[in-house]
Amino acid sequence: MSNLTRRRFLQATAALAAATALGVGYGRVIEPRWMDVEHVHLTVPGLPTALSGRRFAQLSDLHLGPYFSSEQLFDAVAQVNSLAVDWLLLTGDYATVHDHDDADLAAAAAGMVEPLRSARMPVYSAIGNHDLWGDIGIIERCLQEAGTTLLRNSGTLLEANLWLGAVDDVWSGRPDLAAALSDAPVGALNLLIAHEPDFFDTVVAQDAPVALQLSGHSHGGQVRLPSLMPAAGGLHSYAPILPRYGQRYPIGLHRSGSRLVYTNRGLGCWPLPYRINCRPEITIFDLRPGEGPAIETACTNLQILL
């Protein structure tokens, strides 16, 4: 009997070790390269006819470096190019290296130049906390070389009655919401880029004329565990670890009154190269006219390996 018990114990231990190895391998190799394309349909009361059907995409948290490559970014931009997108919006954290060496950071950041140049639509960018924690000059130069329009406490008119504003990084910068919206036409539909999603509380508290805030930062937690009760975003999963300023709206779409905030899960990984139940994401937003505030979301579940 003791031999049988010992044998079963060894078999169970081996099975557990194999399952652990498979789980680690999946989280390290497969899911970080397995892209979701999320479609969010925004129904806007009184939307001008000229804006109906207009489409924009969001990419966030590239973290180019040891865990995310220029080739993977090329593939993501190619996917955006295939989806008839009018504008591409980038919500910060472009390159990250472990040792904070400027030469390594410059090499990693240079990896975004050619992929972003391949975008077939105008590209607008904002700054994230990791961009300020490294050499922001390197990041700004590469974004400029890539042909993006960098917005920091400023904005631009994408089209008549459609304004895009962006605040400086919330964690380590000096965000100025009033400056980001100061030149927006009266009555325009205002979009706001703020890298950290919890800035949405400031938008609401200031009663700012923002219809939709786009954010990243949290990576959705990167690792999400099953939950019996719906958590953030209505998902039956939760992230045990979330960063500062990414805890109240860590993933997906949230509403406060007539305002919305969307938190993209990002493309890259940091500080560890794992994703479990939290795949990297491209988000596509469609503007639609309609009565009353309504939002419809649909994940295409495209099987895209970056």
Number of helices: 8
H/E element sequence: HEEHEHHEHHEEEHEHEEEEEEEE
Give the low-confidence spans: 293-306
* Residue-averaged pLDDT: 89
SS strand fraction: 25-35%
Radius of gyration computed on alpha carbons: 21 Å
Helix proportion: 25-40%
Gross morphology: globular
- Class by SSE composition: alpha/beta
Strand tally, please?
16
Largest sheet: 8 strands, mixed
| Straight-line distance between termini | 51 Å
Q: Could you characterize what this model shows?
A:
- The chain has 306 residues and is an alpha/beta fold.
- Helices cover 26% and strands 25% of the residues.
- It has helices at 2-30, 70-81, 102-110, 113-117, 129-133, 136-145, 177-181, 200-205; strands spanning 34-45, 55-59, 87-90, 123-125, 149-150, 154-159, 162-166, 189-193, 212-215, 225-226, 237-238, 252-256, 259-263, 281-290, 294-299, 304-305.
What's a quick, concise take on this entry?
It is built from eight helices and 16 strands. The protein has 306 residues and is of the alpha/beta class.
What is the secondary structure topology, with strand pairs?
Layout: H1 2-30, E1 34-45, E2 55-59, H2 70-81, E3 87-90, H3 102-110, H4 113-117, E4 123-125, H5 129-133, H6 136-145, E5 149-150, E6 154-159, E7 162-166, H7 177-181, E8 189-193, H8 200-205, E9 212-215, E10 225-226, E11 237-238, E12 252-256, E13 259-263, E14 281-290, E15 294-299, E16 304-305
Parallel strand pairs: 1-14, 2-3, 3-4, 4-5, 7-8, 8-9, 9-13
Antiparallel strand pairs: 1-15, 1-16, 2-14, 6-7, 10-11, 12-13
